[in-house]
Amino acid sequence: MKNLGAVVLASLVALPAGLAAGEKLVIKPLAQEHWNGSRTLRFKTPEGWLVQNTSGQVEVTEARGDGMRLRLVRWPIDMGLDSTHADCMLQRLAGPMETSLDVRYEYDFVGGEIGERRVLDSAFVVEYDAPIDGDKKWRQRNLTVVGAGESVCIITYVRNGMWKKSTAARKLAASLAESVKWP
């Protein structure tokens, strides 16, 4: 699997464009390449994004900047598509006691295949009790990829107000997910 573009673009749902007064997001090129902790996945971000790796039983890499985040979660085994996707969808920006149970789905369990790997895709809005980076509502997209002896969550988080108002934010979020590659 070398390219996630077809799955990413096929399930990208466009919302009304337009920015609020004073709010602009300029699409920056994905100029910096990074690796997850085990060096099994590589991805790109705009310059200036903070990237952190956490190793352990579950490997987590998170990149953040420009009001959005990219999180990669990797298990070195094929755990099955449905169960991995359920785990991926529980990846939140705050703990369960700080998150509303009312999740608004944009779409859910859109499936496909890329080479020898199986894919599920879901997108929804989560509301948090306290603002995170200035917003209580975040659009979360989970792209789960399973096969070739591993299970991977590719998760993008975008402040919901930014997602609704900015075509540039939607394009950047899709580009972040598309940038994930297997060496």
What does this protein look like?
The protein has helices at residues 5-10, 81-89, 160-165, 167-178, and strands at residues 32-35, 42-45, 50-54, 59-65, 68-75, 104-114, 117-132, 135-147, 150-159. With 183 residues, the protein is of the alpha+beta class. The chain has one domain: Protein Transport Mog1p, Chain A (3-Layer(aba) Sandwich), CATH 3.40.1000. The strands form 2 sheets. It has a 7-stranded antiparallel sheet. Strands 1-2 form a two-stranded antiparallel ribbon. A hairpin with a 4-residue loop joins strand 3 (50-54) and strand 4 (59-65). The longest helix has 12 residues, at 167-178.
What is the strand and helix layout of this fold?
Elements: H1 5-10, E1 32-35, E2 42-45, E3 50-54, E4 59-65, E5 68-75, H2 81-89, E6 104-114, E7 117-132, E8 135-147, E9 150-159, H3 160-165, H4 167-178
Antiparallel strand pairs: 1-2, 3-4, 4-5, 5-9, 6-7, 7-8, 8-9
Number of helical elements:
4
Beta-strand content estimate: 35-45%
Q: What is the terminal-to-terminal distance?
A: 9 Å
Chain-averaged pLDDT: 87
Let me know the number of strands: 9
Number of domains: 1
The value of Rg in angstroms is: 15 Å
* N-to-C SSE string, H for helix and E for strand: HEEEEEHEEEEHH
What helical percentage do the residues reach? 10-25%
Structural class call reads alpha+beta
Show unreliable segments: 5-22
Query: CATH-wise, what's the superfamily?
Result: Mog1/PsbP, alpha/beta/alpha sandwich
CATH topology: Protein Transport Mog1p, Chain A
